Amino acid sequence: MHLKHTDYNLGIMSQNLHPKKRVVVGMSGGVDSSVTAWLLKQQGYEVVGLFMKNWEDDDDSEYCSTRQDWIDAVSVADVVGVDIEAVNFAAEYKDRVFADFLREYSAGRTPNPDVLCNAEIKFKAFLDHAMTLGADHIATGHYARVRSVPGDGGAHFQLLKALDHTKDQSYFLHRLNQAQLSRTLFPLGEITKVEVRRIAHELGLPNAAKKDSTGICFIGERPFREFLNRYLPTQPGPILTEQGKKIGTHHGLSFYTLGQRKGLGIGGVKGHQQADGTGPTWYVARKDLKTNTLYVVEGHEHPWLLSSQLHAGQISWVRGQSPAPGPYAAKTRYRQEDAACVLSQSSSEGFALDFTDQQWAVTPGQSAVLYDGEVCLGGGIII
User: What is the pLDDT of residues 297-339, one digit of tens each?
Assistant: First the structure.
């Protein structure tokens, strides 16, 4: 099935065609990367699909089977009319991403593997491999945009939010640098997820209704504690209230994150029941690694869960240099609304943000990402 140009108003279909430019598209078997490949082919690029296999442990399990994803990717490539090949980055993923993931959890922090996965695999290992295939650009199904901005010293590249703010993924891409952005195309940044699904259905893509992938980058969605326990030892310890009263036993600090309220096993603590006999809602508020103690508090708005300032390290700025101190907006977790803040200090070691409104459950190990309007400036890891 062929879409009519009148049915597809993207504004780029009939202009800026690149008949001699080769683009290698990361095709995962999902609908986003599939439509990405089709859009680029319609724009006149020579499109080559590349399927990345990045996880081999328990790959035959119900949670992470690349076999079906590969079948879907090949089927889509056939419909779209592009060549596709598979490449194995499992060793790079385990060394550059998963090892860091485990180190962070062991240190009591809550990392975001998608951020590191993008910087080290999708836009480094994948980009390097694509260049050996003669690629002029790479492309992925991320919802974000890249803009070239002219300047006296030459053009620089900005990372922008997607037009569909409900799907914007610039938060996960904030560690990309100028060299990476200069080679990257994000076709889906200009359209909505609803439009992507519509295109896939009208094209008759075999994965048009396929559920979006979730969970750990390239590992998938699975019982998290059970999965993590295969790699990190359990170290049970006390669960204490802010008054120091023991109300339970945790399985190990690595298995909990700030703001967590499910899976604590302390729902009906004696002396804390409400009038109707139900227990309060407990939230993880602090982790003390020295004493192996997990602290919980009652209520979503407890002061221990609110922060007016944060510090971040392991910084990465899209332009390669720190923005000037002053007012900006920031996200401390994906899908969070932009929060007004002031960049009060910044150096090569890190930066500090002061928020207009207190932020909930600011979590060490997560990324604090800075924005100037639609422009993603970069960010760092919350300390």
Answer: 999 999 999 999 999 999 999 999 999 999 999 999 998 999 9
CA distance 299 to 279: 11
For 83, counting Cβ atoms within 10 Å of its Cβ (0-12 exposed, 13-18 middle, 19+ buried), the class is exposed
Provide the b/e sequence for 277-292 (b: ≥16 CB within 10 Å).
eeebebbbbebeeeee
Residue 110 and residue 362: Cα distance in Å, rounded?
Answer: 11
117 is catalytic: yes
pLDDT of residue 14: 39
Domains of the chain with CATH codes: 5-224 (3.40.50.620), 233-300 (2.30.30.280), 306-382 (2.40.30.10)
Q: Which of 64, 117, 341, 376 is catalytic?
A: 117
- Angle 147-148-154 (CA atoms, 0-180°, nearest 5)? 160
The encoded tokens of residue 361 equal 């459950």
Alpha carbon distance 289, 148 (integer Å): 45
**The model's pTM:** 0.88
